[in-house]
Every structure is written in C-alpha cells, then in structure tokens.
Amino acid sequence: MNAFPQIDADQAAGELAAIYDDIYATLRVPWVAFAIRVMALFPAYVPAAWAALKPQISTRFAEAAADLVRQASILPGPPPPDPRPKLRAAGWTDEQIRRLGRTLDALNYGNPKYLILITAWNEAWHERHAGGPEQVLSATDAEPLPYGLPAGVDKFNLLDPATASPEVQGLLRRARNLFLHHGPASDYRVLAAWPDYLSIAIEDDLAPVALTPQYDATSYRIRAIAREHVARFPGIGGVSRHDMEETLTPVESAGLTGLLFMYNRFIADITIAIIRLKQAFDGTESATQNKFAT
Amino acid sequence: MNAFPQIDADQAAGELAAIYDDIYATLRVPWVAFAIRVMALFPAYVPAAWAALKPQISTRFAEAAADLVRQASILPGPPPPDPRPKLRAAGWTDEQIRRLGRTLDALNYGNPKYLILITAWNEAWHERHAGGPEQVLSATDAEPLPYGLPAGVDKFNLLDPATASPEVQGLLRRARNLFLHHGPASDYRVLAAWPDYLSIAIEDDLAPVALTPQYDATSYRIRAIAREHVARFPGIGGVSRHDMEETLTPVESAGLTGLLFMYNRFIADITIAIIRLKQAFDGTESATQNKFAT
Q1: Pick from A180, A242, A262: which is nearest to B258 by CB?
Q2: Using CB atoms, which residue from B220, B251, B256 is nearest to A41?
Q3: Cα separation of B110 and B271, whole Å?
Q4: Average pLDDT over residues B42-56
Q5: pTM for the full predicted model
Q6: Which of A96, B44, B100, B113 has its CA 20 to 30 A from that of B35?
C-alpha cells in the first residue's frame, strides 16, 4: 500500500508541529485531519488558513454548528446490527468494548468539526461566504471553548499503513475503495488497532450503504449545513487563492483547489460513516450527541 | 477575475500542442477540457494518461457510453422556458439562434465524452476499475470512430476571462459561484460570445436548479454510468499514482489526486447544465441526442 503524500503528526517539526498542537488543543480533538496533513505539504497554506480560522472555529458558535452536522448525519433506514454479539464471541471484554466506544465518541466529536474547518477553508479559498466582520455573534456564541483536549482523552495513535500486516492493509484498502476514496481516513488508521472490529464495521455497517443515493444525499445535506454556518463566522475563516497568489506556484495553487474540494466531500463521507458505527452500538441518540460538551 | 492556472490551447506548444490536436481529432470535440488544461501544468501526467486512454476512448463503445450519460442527464421536473421569445425581443435572427443551437450541440456532444475521460483517469489513478485486458469488446464496439472534427464543426474560441468586459466577467463569476465551482467552465467561456443569451441561460435555466438535491442526484447517476463503462474498457484507461511516483513530487501527486476528484464532479455538473440549456430550446429528445453520430 503506497502511502498518500502527507506530513504525519510524528513527522511535523518546528512551526508545523506547533500548529498541529494548537489544532488538537483548539478543536479539542485527538488527531490532526488527513486533509491538513496533506495540505501541510504546500508552502504557507496551512499556517495562513489556520491563523484565519482559529478565532472563528474556537467559538461556541462553531461547536454548535458541528453539533447540527452530527445530528444530520444519520442515514435513513434501520440502524446497522449491534456488533457486540460478534465481538463477545471473538472474546472481547466489556472493558475493551467500552474503550472502543470512547474512541468512536472522540472521532464523532472531531469529524463534524473538521467538516466545518474544511468548508470554511474551501469557501474562503474561492472568496465565497466564509464569514466576515459584518457578521455578529451573540455574546454566548462568541465565547471560546476551553483550550486543550477533554479530560481523559489522549492523542490517537494512527497506524502506519506501510508497516501494517497484510490483513490490516486489506481492510484499509477495502474501506478506502468502498467509498472511492484516495487513501485511508485517519479514523480507519485508528480503528485498525482492532482489526476484528474494523472488519465487522466495514462489512456490516458500511458496505451496505456506501455509494448509495441515500449516502450521497446525506453528505449533500451536511455540507450545506456546514456552508450555512461558516457564512456566519464573524471573520473570514480561511485564505483565498488570490491571497496566496504570490506564495504558491500555479501547480500548487491548482492542486490545493482540488484538495480543498476533495476533502470537503471526503470529510462529509467519513463523518457519516463513523456516526453510523456508533449508531450500531448505542442507537441514534447517542451517536449524534456531543459527548465532550463543556 | 484572476485566471485559474492552466495551459490554454493557444499557449500549448511542442508535445502538448500535438496532444491537444490529437484530443480534438480523437474525441471529435472542438475544445480541450478545462480539466486537461489545468492538469497539463503537471509534468508528464497528461501525455501518459492520454496515451493510455486514447485506444479506449476512440472506440464506438466509449461513444455509446457517452450517449448513455447524455440520456441520463435530464433533471426531473418540467423543462426550462423556451428562451426564443426573449432572444427575438432582443433582436436575434433565426440564423443567430441556429448558430447558438449548433454550439450547444457540440458542447453536449463533448461533455459526456469528457466525463468518460475524467472517470477513466480518476479510476485508473487509484488502481480501481478502469478497464483491463481481461475485458473484451465486440467487433462493433471495438471499432474506432472516424478521426477528426465532424464536418462543419470548427474549434471553439474560448473567451479569456481576464480581458472580458465587466458585464461578461460578472456572468462568468455568477455561473461559477452558482455551482460552487472554482473557475468558469469552457462552456461559459464559449457562450460568453453571446452575453445576452448567457444571462438568460444562467437566470432562467440554471439558477433555479443549481445545488438542488435533484441536481446532485443526477450527477451521482451519470458518474455511476461513467464508472460502469470505463470498467469495461479493454485496457486500463489511465495511469496510476503509483505509476507516476518517480515522476511527480509529493505535492504534484497530492494535487493531481484532488484535481481528478474535483473535475469528476465538475464535468458531471457542466454536462447536466448544458444539456438543460438545449432542452429549453428543443425539448428532452433533442437535448439528449448524439448530434454527431457516424
């Protein structure tokens, strides 16, 4: 499995490492999104875009927008089957199941926030509606969230696909191809710590719904919610292609345009997928809840 | 309006100019797609991908696949209003209307073919299903189309947005933003020769349907048709990221991945849009017909 070009968290140094740390603490999520790790290859973009977005996405307003995305991410139809009987038959303890559940909670806390982030970056890139000083938030909405990972949440360990077992590589490839994606989402690199569960999740929860019109319509809906909310940011939540014209080569500028578009869809897909994995365990209400509200 | 980075037809030289000429003649379409002009910035990609695709896309099988895409590109609901009364009121002659109609026909002949092209390139890039020697076409399907533009069809003149009037720039920007696109499609740069018509097309035909769930579902459908057909090509219709690993830098490789994904959606959007413009004049049957069948 040839790795997709990116700067993983353990390879980031200097300014980029500091930005990655600031992203963890500001968003309160235990990983840096695939999109960011790839766009970090492009000179100056991530630092500039993050500097513009940070004051916007650290607010309670942005948190509430992510909550609405999460609530709208349930696919129509019955939930997938409860995976617990298969896990118990494979020898899983209640404690192991509880730990997996907390991992899914953290992923489901973060993915909707990353959809807000990529939407703001993409809209700002095209000088569309990614907020502006004419937008005014209420005092409560403008309040910043606490800074730092939630209590009891540790940074995720993302498995390196290149050094994974053939079995795990097969699972990552299967998850990627099911959705016509270009590489394994961070989420699958986290869940790959439990290959037996990842296999159940892919086959029972995701394969039956991947690439269906219902999946596509749900992605369409949550991307619209994200756009509506970033348009209300009290400052522009990113930088434009025009802003970066003197910094980036034509190839870099065109490439970033494609990546921003692609990750806007990719993150929507993965948001829906991982909420569905949680829905299989604990139902719709739990799957769509903000488990780290402050 | 700052131009999107690309190599326009009149800027192409050497090997690239020869490839552009080969694309016109092989596909029998009077313009080189925006996607290709942008990806031509990336070293070696377009020559390699075109060399792989040409034997596949020059067949009657590929032409028939594009015909199916065209037929599936009609949005549900009534057709848009006939623009002729407004055009006649603005002084248009029957001859002018006829010439516009032929331009729409050529665009509608080409867009579905470019959806086949970008789908093959995108699927091949990810080593998914873009054909292979195990696929066998019937003798008729394997036949090549005649080489060269259809009789009476001349290469399009794409207006340069940078030198357009403020009015035309406004129309191009409006068409672009309606669909959350990154730049004006070639089609609008062609239709910009008639700003009064382009304005009617945008407001009466496209604005009411842009970004609706129905539009999204139609795009979803035609992209699936394109994928099903490129999977049946008798050879792989593109090159993979892996194939190009030693030629491209990580930034180029990541950027191309994003562009291939983005143009797969972009070309689907524009295919639907321009067929709808023709539907307004001449109804569904005419709008979905292959007007240059041989």
Answers
A1: A262
A2: B251
A3: 9
A4: 97
A5: 0.97
A6: B100
